[in-house]
Specification:
single chain; 484 residues; Nucleotidyltransferase, domain 5; 7-stranded mixed beta sheet; 18 helices; 37% helix; globular; nucleotide-binding; carbohydrate metabolism; kinase
Length: 484
């Protein structure tokens, strides 16, 4: 048996598979995010380890024999978080999460150093790890002075499991400290942000083992201390492993809390000016590129909270098929934006509100605004030399056929819906665990899922949505100064 743990923003999910990749069982536990000030987003690392104990307790209760047969664990996690540890490995403060944008000024200063884009292959976004730690150095100097190690969220969970300070290439690529082409920490980038190599974990490929369980943790979880722990992956790289997107042209669109348009790449070909992320993949000698919008289903969830209706009820009112763009326009920048704008300060807006508009109109506008932003991401990927011919849709938003058909039409390419089953980051993490324990070739393990349906673009509505997207792109520069 092999276990994939997906350390998400709202909770931890465990997925158990056998050697044939048959799903055996799963378990979940949830935790909270603290937002003490606008733009801040933090979590207690202890909540992650508590959640880990909870999911394993559930698995032991429901599948005791299978837990005795576990050979390896792989962990996927939300990227870019800054978990600062003292010399004993204890957290010094809550982790600053991926959607924490307090370090915009520090990110701007680092990005002005040409070495950062040249070696990392990326803009220094406020959500990345390096500017967050620089913010701590400048605003919490007593904490920074005690910082012996900085770990990404899933790497802290791996440290708790094994006692090893380790990270994988895919997650580390989002720190602004990694030479992404060379797949190694950059002394230049570390020096440029006041850090040292000694404060970094040891690097591994995601499919490689980093160690075995600490005996006390093995006893707590009810597992053998010989269980191998893989280096794992950042959540998007793990999701790419879960749906078999390893090479050029293989990609997915993810409608989760954030929105992601991702393609595998066989080589390192960055274009930082496009605001496309160019990261190492979780498997050796591969990279991937993606565009990221910060509020995809988060935009729908925001509307849901304010209208007092569930997201499912809101999208159900739209039906299953699109009929043309709305005259109401929504800019989905509720938490700022990454691709293509790199603007942490901008905020969302409705344009064209009319007294006749009701919940269904607002829902359609929100769905369209997120989809238009994903079209911006496709254009950014194209400018970086990436090409996509078809996509697999994943994430909670992909349950809306209306939404998937809209994206297919805007991107002008077919979108595949996987057959019922597991295909996301937890499966990718379990696949990495399988590779770490068996030394299997990732290309033979990380295959595409069975496809239940392919949603084709609506050729009859393509021109109308293309025109609506053109109007959307003109809105951001027109109101940028009004929403900051």
């Amino acid at each position: 048996m092999f276990i994939g743990l997906d350390l998400g923003t709202s909770g931890l999910r465990a997925l158990v598979i056998d050697e044939a990749q048959k799903i055996v069982t799963s378990s979940e536990a949830h935790y909270d995010t603290s937002r003490p000030h606008p733009g801040w987003s933090e979590q207690d690392p202890g909540a992650w380890t508590d959640a880990c104990q909870t999911v394993f307790a559930k698995l032991r209760d429901s599948h005791p024999a299978e837990m005795q047969a576990v050979r390896a664990i792989g962990v996927s996690g939300h990227m870019h978080g800054a978990t600062l540890l003292d010399t004993s490995g204890a957290p010094l403060r809550p982790c600053l999460l991926w959607n924490d944008t307090r370090s915009a000024e520090q990110a701007k200063r680092l990005d002005e150093n040409p070495a950062f884009r040249a070696q990392s292959g990326n803009i220094v976004f406020p959500g990345f790890t390096a500017p967050k730690v620089l913010w701590v150095a400048e605003n919490e100097p007593d904490v920074f002075a005690q910082t012996a190690k900085v770990l990404l969220p899933k790497d802290y969970l791996n440290f708790w499991l094994t006692g090893v300070y380790a990270s994988d290439m895919s997650d580390s690529a989002g720190t602004s400290w990694l030479d992404v082409g060379a797949r190694d920490w950059s002394n230049t980038l570390l020096d440029g942000s006041g850090m040292t190599r000694a404060q970094m974990p040891t690097l591994f490929e995601g499919s490689a083992p980093i160690g075995t369980l600490r005996p006390d943790i093995a006893s707590t979880l009810g597992l053998s201390p010989e269980v191998i722990v893989a280096a794992g992956a950042g959540d998007n790289a793990a999701a790419a492993c879960g749906i078999g997107a390893l090479s050029d042209g293989q990609g997915f669109v993810s409608l989760g809390t954030s929105g992601v348009l991702l393609t595998g790449r066989d080589g390192f070909a960055p274009n930082a000016d496009s605001a496309v992320h160019t990261f190492c993949h979780a498997v050796p000698n591969r990279w991937y590129q993606m565009g990221v919008i910060l509020a995809a289903t988060d935009s729908l969830n925001w509307l849901s909270r304010n209208l007092g209706q569930s997201p499912a009820a809101l999208t159900a009112a739209l039906g299953d098929t699109i009929s043309g763009p709305s005259s109401l326009r929504f800019l989905p920048y509720l938490s700022g934006e990454r691709t293509p704008h790199n603007d942490a300060a901008t905020r969302g807006a409705f344009l064209g509100l009319d007294i006749s508009h009701g919940p269904t109109d607002l829902t359609q506008a929100v769905i369209e605004g997120v989809s238009f932003a994903l079209r911006d991401n496709l254009n950014a990927l194209a400018s970086a030399g990436a090409s996509l011919s078809s996509l697999i849709a994943i994430g909670g938003g992909a349950q809306s056929r209306y939404w998937v058909e809209l994206i297919a039409t805007l991107l002008d390419m077919p979108i595949d819906l996987p057959a019922k089953g597991e295909f996301g980051a937890a499966l990718g993490a379990a696949r990495l665990a399988l590779c770490a324990a068996t030394n299997a070739d990732p290309d033979t393990v990380m295959t595409r899922p069975d496809i239940a349906e392919t949603i084709a673009p609506r050729s009859d509505l393509r021109d109308a949505y293309t025109a609506a997207h053109a109007a959307f792109t003109q809105s951001y520069p027109a109101i940028r100064g009004l929403t900051q």
